[in-house]
Amino acid sequence: MTSRVGKITIRNPLLLASGILGESSGSMIRVYSSGAGGVVTKSIGMEPRDGYRNPTVYEFESGMLNAMGLPNPGIEHFSDVISRTKAAGVFTVGSIFGGDENEFSHLAGKMEAYGVDAVELNLSCPHVEGFGSELGSSPERVRSVVGAVRQAVRIPVWAKMTPNVADMGSIAAAAEEAGADAIVAINTVRAMAISARLRRPVLSNTYGGLSGEAVKYVGLRAVYEIGKKCSIPVIGVGGVRSGEDVAEYLVAGASAVQIGTAVAERGPGVFGQVADELSDFMEREGFSSLKEMIGIARR
Ligand code: SIN
Question: pTM for the complete prediction?
Answer without folding.
Answer: 0.97
